[in-house]
Amino acid sequence: MPSRKFADGEVVMGRWPGGVLYYELQVTGYDDTSRVYTLKYEDGTELELKESEIRSQSSFKRRKSQSSSGSPSRRRTGKVQSRSPGRPAKSRRRSSSQGRDHKDDKEKTIQLVLVFFKLSENNTRSYNGEPDSTERTDTSLRSVERNLEPDLEIEHEREEQKIKEKIFKTIKTSSKTKELEFGGRIGTFTLIFFLPATVFYLLLMCKQEDPSLMNFPPPLPALESLWETRVFSVFLLWFFLQALFYLLPIGKVVEGLPLSNGRRLHYRINGFYAFVLTAAALGILLFFQFELHYLYDHFMQFAVSAAAFSMGLSIFLYIQSLKAPEEELAPSGNSGYLVYDFFTGHELNPRIGSFDLKYFCELRPGLIGWVVINLAMLLAEMKIHNQSTPSLSMVLVNSFQLLYVVDALWNEEAVLTTMDITHDGFGFMLAFGDLVWVPFVYSLQAFYLVGHPTAISWPVAAAITVLNCVGYYIFRSANSQKNSFRRNPADPKLAHLKFIPTATGKGLLVTGWWGFVRHPNYLGDIIMALAWSLPCGFNHILPYFYVIYFICLLVHREARDEHHCKQKYGLAWERYCQRVPYRIVPYVY
């Protein structure tokens, strides 16, 4: 039997199956029977190649640069200096300003990525031999530079613009979801019942005179009392009113991030206008003596109505997703298991015409509804306790959470870069979360204060306000920094930020907030959640459920982010984790 030609650990040049370009790989294994080598990219991606598809590095000798020719048959290769994607480019002159050097590095990185995309388009048009994500940009630069050099000058501006749009594109090949989250099929089946039960339990406990955990279970109401057709009609009116505001031709229209097929969806940014119109409508209702505390009196029925609607919506979404093309399915909800895909969401961006259901539900009916519920609780407190003004605790809770909602609506465009929009499908998880969990659980503190008033002093209120402001500052500045960098990494305003280049063409920030901890926005979230609960005092743990839940949620999200980023960025993410060791809380976690 002939001996193997390449040893384990040896760095070679391997041809990507079906392609014409060679990539720098490392041998990690060999099968004596099939004579097939296992090789690995720098970012950890593995593939198998036959010996005939592998060449030694010494066979790739660079040739001197010659004059370029427009004829494909006479195209000549030029000498392009190879460099590691993780090492910054060397400019001919070193500026004394670190910001200028980093800006030059960004421009050179973009130019080299352009080289790759032009070559792949000119030579293969549809390069089916790319790795399983065309984010292989930076790791492929060495092989591209050693083989071919494009003539950048002869390209038209329009073609160049199209190529530039691909630099930061995330292209994912549609495939079955292999790694199941949330406990897989059994876990998601359980959550479909457990989540509504949790909401109803919390609301029933808040209604008790002594909402202690020792009083479990709370008295269960009669089933017929949980449903009221009038309440469901009011909920439907609210939902479709927000849909009407969403369809109004006000606000700018922006493009979302590229989909797997390269297409960008359009979104109208008018959430803040919808909030203003809702506030005006409420003002008119209150002027005509409408009893808004009706929400408090029928709070459980509203929660049941919202849960029923979210279930019906989820069923509609799943049935609709069965007719969606493969490329429009969510990467996290295409397992082939009905219950799992129903829960996580089978289709990524379900739409009725131009009406994007997921994007609409993400910020409109539930988030704005949260503010309306808080206001209803404030009015209910004044009426029940015969007060001319609301308590200081209720004012703090309403003010803090109003700031959070207004911030989300004012920065509505930022939601387009979140995992909810770019990665997760729209199924029961997001439908129930947006329409039930957010408005009825996030308003738990205000609901609790109606039946369990808590007096706090002005100095305590001032301290809690400072705490909330600190959390909000961390949350907002970290998110703004991330969103600006995602949208335009070459923005001169971001020239002072350092980053680690990745194989996707994107960068991982290692300065600013994202060099402090890996998820500084989560740190701000936790601080704000604590500030929202402190006005409720310490008599019961129930108002702090939100804090406990939020910590668990963020730890789960952080684990998802870590797994997703490790798969997406490979070795670059490992270098980032070494550079930024703390995940959410510095020196703690």
Automatic annotation (TrEMBL):
The chain crosses the membrane at residues 182-204, 231-250, 271-290, 302-319, 430-450, 456-475, 496-517, 537-556. PROSITE patterns: STEROL_REDUCT_1, STEROL_REDUCT_2. Residues 52-105 are annotated as: Disordered. One of its GO terms (cellular component) is endoplasmic reticulum membrane. Pathway: Steroid biosynthesis; cholesterol biosynthesis. Its EC number is 1.3.1.70. GO terms for molecular function: Delta14-sterol reductase activity; DNA binding. InterPro entries: ERG24_DHCR-like, Lamin-B_rcpt_of_tudor, Sterol_reductase_CS, Tudor. It is found in: Cytoplasm; Endoplasmic reticulum membrane; Nucleus inner membrane. CDD domains: Tudor_LBR. Coiled coil: none annotated. Keywords: Cholesterol biosynthesis, Cholesterol metabolism, Cytoplasm, DNA-binding, Endoplasmic reticulum, Lipid biosynthesis, Lipid metabolism, Membrane, Nucleus, Oxidoreductase, Phosphoprotein, Receptor, Steroid biosynthesis, Steroid metabolism, Sterol biosynthesis, Sterol metabolism, Transmembrane, Transmembrane helix. It is a multi-pass membrane protein. Pfam families: ERG4_ERG24, LBR_tudor. It comes from the Eukaryota. The keyword Transmembrane applies. The keyword NAD does not apply. Its main location: cytoplasm. It catalyses: 4,4-dimethyl-8,14-cholestadien-3beta-ol + NADPH + H(+) = 4,4-dimethyl-5alpha-cholest-8-en-3beta-ol + NADP(+); 4,4-dimethyl-5alpha-cholesta-8,24-dien-3beta-ol + NADP(+) = 4,4-dimethyl-5alpha-cholesta-8,14,24-trien-3beta-ol + NADPH + H(+); 5alpha-cholest-8,14-dien-3beta-ol + NADPH + H(+) = 5alpha-cholest-8-en-3beta-ol + NADP(+). Belongs to the ERG4/ERG24 family. This is Delta(14)-sterol reductase LBR. It comes from Rostratula benghalensis.
